[in-house]
Amino acid sequence: MPELNYDIIIIGAGPAGATLARLLDSNSYRVLLLDGQPLRKAKPCGGLLAPDAQKALACFELTLPKSVLVSPQIFAVKTIDLGSGRIRYYPRSYVNLDREKFDRWFLGLVPDSVEILSANCLSVCRSAGGFSLKIRDAAGSEKALHSTYVVGADGANSLLRRSLFPKQKMDAYVSIQQWFKAGDRNPFYSCIFDPETSDSCSWSIHKDEYFIFGGAFAAHACREAFERQKEKLRAYGFHFGEVLRTEACQVLRPHGPGSFCLGADNAFLLGEAAGLISPSSLEGISSAILSATWLSQALNADPEHALAQYRHSSRGLRMKLWAKCAKRWFMYEPIPRSLIMASGLSSIDVIPSGTGE
Ligand SMILES: Cc1cc2nc3c(=O)[nH]c(=O)nc-3n(C[C@H](O)[C@H](O)[C@H](O)COP(=O)(O)OP(=O)(O)OC[C@H]3O[C@@H](n4cnc5c(N)ncnc54)[C@H](O)[C@@H]3O)c2cc1C
Fold it and tell me: In this predicted structure, what is the pLDDT of residue 183?
């Protein structure tokens, strides 16, 4: 099989890969972006654009088209602790998105100078002068590729990370999400804690005519834990109805500085592939955009020292995510969480409609 040659191959066209492809200097590099998304199962995601991600877009003067938004937009999260039975509302300013449409819009910003191939990367290894990749394209045919640099922007279960950095261990949950037809209740966004079934959290959110319920669970018996939690939520007014779609994937949970892996020797990792995701909220779009921005700047300036520069630029983000491990303790440990919720700290009172209160 003859090999096709590139300077840089980016595996994965999510927010991290699409940002890097958009920002690399096309006069200096021949870039290939492998977009595996259309060939893979839909990625489960809450589809909420948090303030950090809004700020990352603002830095590029990017504004969101109406076509990626879904209804309703939300101003508060209803936090339900199934352990203590407490419910509190906390103000939040997220943008509610159709995640698939957001990714497609973002990919549309990549300039024509970048080659985009709808293909799955099957393998990657080091070879003379760079890297050899085997891919399968949308038509099912396999191709061999070669590049000087390779970038894994391929998400939590990164093939590049597993192939080139097998010693890097990541803590991970299995995230399960189901879609239902929305009922006629007041749409709301909720965050659910249930110490009996998970030491992470679950969520529910409305997206146009759909209602989504999802959660992150330890891999062992994750499906049973998910179903058990659904059962318990019926007592809190949740009506699930017929399951329209079930999705599952890995989601990473960094626990300290050793949970991040940015790469080595001309192989780089970005976004969630690098472990860059909030351990407290599981928010990862902002880290994906920021890490890709810093790597593009490092590669455009000086490819020889790109890794050192990328490490330097991303230090603040890694420290911030590490610090969130402490926040995570207050959120996820039943006793501190119960005390915080009992105190009402930072919460808002919700006045029921039509009572005149
Ligand atoms: C259930 C769930 C809910 C979440 N909710 C939110 C949220 O509301 N807000 C938020 O900010 N973050 C959320 N996150 C986290 C967020 O989805 C990720 O951190 C973010 O998408 C990371 O972006 P990325 O570009 O690094 O990776 P991804 O978005 O995962 O993109 C990776 C891309 O690589 C492709 N790919 C993977 N392997 C290959 C391969 N072998 N060949 C070719 N292509 C490949 C995939 O198809 C995908 O398109 C959630 C995560 C989960 C699991």
Answer: 80
CA of 12 to the centre of ligand 1 (A): 9
**Substitution candidate for ligand 1 out of 77, 157, 198, 272 with most atoms within 8 A of CB:** 272
Is any ligand 1 atom within 6 A of the Cβ of residue 215? no
Q: pLDDT tens digit string along 27-37?
A: 999 999 999 99
Task: State the Cα torsion 341-343-348-350 to the nearest 10°.
Answer: 80
Looking at the whole model, is its pTM more than 0.70?
yes
Lowest mean pLDDT among 108-112, 142-146, 254-258: 254-258
Burial class (CB in 10 A: 0-12, 13-18, 19+), 128: exposed
Q: 174 CA to middle of ligand 1, Å? A: 13
Ligand 1 contact, 272 CB (< 6 A): yes
The finding on whether 254 has its CB within 6 A of some atom of ligand 1 is no
Cα(244)–Cα(240) distance, integer angstroms:
10
Cα gap 342→209, rounded to integer Å: 34
What pLDDT was estimated at residue 1? 58
CATH of 3-43+100-169+255-327, one of 2.60.40.420, 3.40.250.10, 3.30.450.50, 3.50.50.60: 3.50.50.60
Weakest mean pLDDT among 15-24, 190-199, 250-259? 250-259
- 66-98+171-253+329-343 in CATH: which number? 3.30.9.10
